[in-house]
Write a structure and sequence with these properties.
Elements: H1 14-32, E1 44-49, H2 55-66, E2 70-75, H3 87-94, E3 100-104, H4 108-116, E4 122-124, H5 132-146, E5 153-157, H6 162-174, E6 177-181, H7 190-193, E7 201-203, H8 207-211, E8 216-219, H9 231-237, H10 245-250, E9 256-259, H11 271-274, H12 281-300
Parallel strand pairs: 1-2, 1-3, 3-4, 5-6, 5-8, 6-7, 8-9
Helix pairs in contact: 1-12, 2-12, 3-4, 5-12
The chain binds phosphoric acid mono(formamide)ester and norvaline (NVA).
Enzyme class: transferase
Family: Belongs to the aspartate/ornithine carbamoyltransferase superfamily. OTCase family.
InterPro entries: Asp/Orn_carbamoyltranf_P-bd (IPR006132), Asp/Orn_carbamoylTrfase (IPR006130), Asp/Orn_carbamoylTrfase_sf (IPR036901), Asp_carbamoyltransf_Asp/Orn-bd (IPR006131), Orn/put_carbamltrans (IPR002292), OTCase_ArgI (IPR024904)
């Protein structure tokens, strides 16, 4: 039987993702009312980090503990991965000692090589190309606060990075539209985004046009982890790609603002927006915990019939 991994958003079908959202709601409510739910007693999650993290580490570690299991943190510096042990060998060993692995790394190819040699499900906790757990939480948050995302318009303002690519995949799975605006030279690369169906996105040279009538406006840092060398060039190129009140005023009246965080106020977003009434960023961050608990439950125990 093949192992179900979550290496990119489209690895799970719409039906499976809807099941996960449904379970996330149940698990969230149960947790908030102090009703224990420990289906993963004795199970171990290994979390491998080759880049920094606050939310991803915390939500996976807390989530696994709340489900009755335990989580072990490994980073490049303190493990043999940083000293050149082949990722295939690491996967063989780590997956014999654990039930689930979450990895945050650089190229998508690294996580794919790990998964190909793993006996247990592997979850992408962010690569240069994708951040599927983030978009799981974002869509869950949208549905929780506004209802179905099908047919809606998401405006992506800024870099066509890992988070943007994942929104584009999700648009194909859930049948919504993404209006993307990037500075020249930073456009979407459809192949890198792993797009597979008809286009669900449109590119706009002017970010105000992308935001017009959008149901959700979202952005991310100008420079992602691993690209710090490009910082100066990006600061110049992205100077007009900032989500401010004026931009939110052309979006739909009840549009939400989201940001995966960490954010840089005064760069990609103004404080008035991220700290303003349309911002859903704290619920979005919290929901990482609930959706990932449902994801781990699904990958280890779940069927879509439960
Ligand atoms: N959004 C997100 O993944 O945050 P961290 O980098 O803190 O994990
Ligand atoms: N695009 C950002 C997301 C951080 C959660 C990065 O890769 O650094």
């Amino acid at each position: 039987m093949s192992i179900q991994h979550f290496l990119q958003f489209k690895d799970l079908s719409r039906e499976e993702l809807e099941h996960i959202f449904n379970r996330a709601g149940i698990i969230k409510k149960r947790y908030k009312t102090y009703l224990p739910y420990h289906p993963l007693i004795d199970r171990t999650l290994v979390m491998i980090f080759e880049k920094s993290s606050t939310r991803t580490r915390l939500s996976f570690e807390a989530g696994m503990q709340q489900l009755g299991g335990n989580a072990i943190y490994l980073n490049t510096r303190d493990s043999q991965l940083g000293r050149g042990e082949p990722v295939e060998d690491a996967a063989q060993v780590i997956s014999r000692m654990s039930d689930l692995v979450m990895i945050r790394t650089f190229e998508q190819e690294i996580i794919e090589r790990f998964a190909a040699n793993s006996r247990v499900p592997v979850i992408n906790g962010l690569t240069n190309e994708y951040h599927p757990c983030q978009i799981l939480a974002d869509i869950y948050t949208y549905i929780e606060q506004r209802g179905s995302i099908q047919g809606k318009t998401v405006a992506w303002i800024g870099d066509s990075n890992n988070v943007c690519n994942t929104w584009l995949q999700a648009a194909e799975v859930f049948d919504f539209n993404v209006h993307v605006s990037t500075p020249p030279g930073y456009e979407v690369e459809p192949e890198r985004a792993g797009l597979f169906g008809e286009d669900h996105y449109e590119e706009f040279p002017d970010p105000m046009d992308a935001a017009r009538n959008a149901d959700l406006v979202t952005t991310d840092v100008w420079t992602s982890m691993g690209f710090e060398r490009e910082n100066d060039a990006r600061r110049k190129a992205f100077a007009d790609w900032i989500v401010d009140k004026e931009m939110m005023s052309v979006a739909s009246k009840d549009a939400l603002f989201m940001h995966c965080l960490p954010a840089h106020r005064g760069e990609e977003v103004d404080a008035a927006v991220i700290d303003g009434p349309q911002s859903a960023v704290w619920d979005e961050a919290e929901n990482r915990l609930h959706v990932q608990k449902a994801l781990m439950e699904y990958l280890l125990l779940g069927t879509i019939d439960t």
